[in-house]
Write a structure and sequence with these properties.
Fructose-1,6-Bisphosphatase, Chain A, domain 1, D-Maltodextrin-Binding Protein, domain 2, alpha+beta, seven-stranded mixed beta sheet, binds D-MYO-inositol-1-phosphate, 34% helix, 8 helices, 271 residues
């Protein structure tokens, strides 16, 4: 396949699904190798399987769309731009294992996320959770689905009734200390949870299993596919700040209490 000025998002989604499921199932089949590390740092780890799964997804994308750009976590995490030798308007965004620390401990909350953007907007995305064999998908203008069944966000209307998933920013990118911010969120919602895989957290918002999501310091590849899945499920995904290349502050909700939660966050973070 080649790239033309306008490709059907449904066609792009087929490749995203193939890449996410093949790479994700490779990690699952090799989970006995979960301790094979390439790099261990405070609060994080990089696995041989991260690199293998990225290569699998990369090859699938390049074989279907040889002229498209690719931005992938394991090559771009020092801020490098996408690999785009043909100056394509399409960029594929690969997170081979989101929730690597969970994976390495044997926790089932991890996934493989593949998105494709056109002019910096995600047009199709697939998030595959191998442990539960759940495949979340969406293309712009179509329904969000889990294993082919349409999903939609919850109807919760206020912060105080909401379950919000969040993460603890390792790099302290906000004015407010991360635990103080977590406590403040937890004090104002029904429950705040830290699950450890942002793409999967967002898919749970899309599926109506929780109501909101916020992270002060997340990466483009963690949220590119799942952010669209939330939107196509009827919710809102919003980038509040972009402090560095590929580094984002992101919130998402079912749409019902978005402005209440946004005001809460922007006031505290002085945005
Ligand atoms: C991480 C997870 C985690 C989030 C971190 C991410 P990775 O992604 O999504 O939930 O809190 O900020 O970096 O490193 O496992 O792909």
């Amino acid at each position: 396949m080649n790239h033309s000025p306008e490709l059907s998002p449904a066609l792009l989604l087929e490749t995203a699904i193939k890449a996410a499921t093949t790479a994700g199932n490779h990690a699952l089949a090799n989970r006995h190798r979960k301790s094979e590390t390439v790099l261990v740092s405070a609060h994080d780890v990089k696995l041989k399987l991260d690199l293998e799964c990225q290569e699998i997804a990369w090859d699938i994308v390049r074989s279907d769309f040889p002229l498209h750009a690719i931005l992938a976590e394991e090559s771009a995490d020092k801020g490098q731009p996408a690999d785009n030798p043909h100056n394509s308007p399409y960029t594929w965004i690969i997170d081979p294992i989101d929730g690597t620390v969970n994976f390495t401990h044997g926790m089932p909350w991890w996934c493989c996320s593949i998105a494709v953007t056109q002019a910096e907007k995600t047009v199709a995305g697939a998030v595959f959770a191998p442990s539960t064999q759940e495949l979340f998908t969406a293309f712009r203008g179509g329904p969000a689905r889990c294993n082919g069944v349409p999903i939609s966000v919850s109807g919760v209307k206020t912060m105080k009734e909401a379950m919000v998933l969040t993460g603890l920013d390792q790099k302290h990118t906000t004015q407010m200390p991360r635990l103080a911010l977590f406590r403040d969120i937890a004090d104002h919602v029904q429950k705040a949870r830290v699950m450890g895989a942002a793409a999967l957290d967002l898919c749970r918002v899309a599926a109506g299993e929780c109501d909101g999501y916020f992270e002060a310091g997340i990466y483009t590849w963690d949220v590119a596919a799942a952010g669209l899945i939330v939107e196509m499920a009827g919710g809102i995904t919003e980038t509040l700040a972009e402090p560095a290349p590929h580094r984002l502050m992101v919130m998402a909700t079912n749409g019902q209490f978005h402005s209440e939660f946004k005001t809460f966050l922007t006031t505290r973070l002085q945005l």
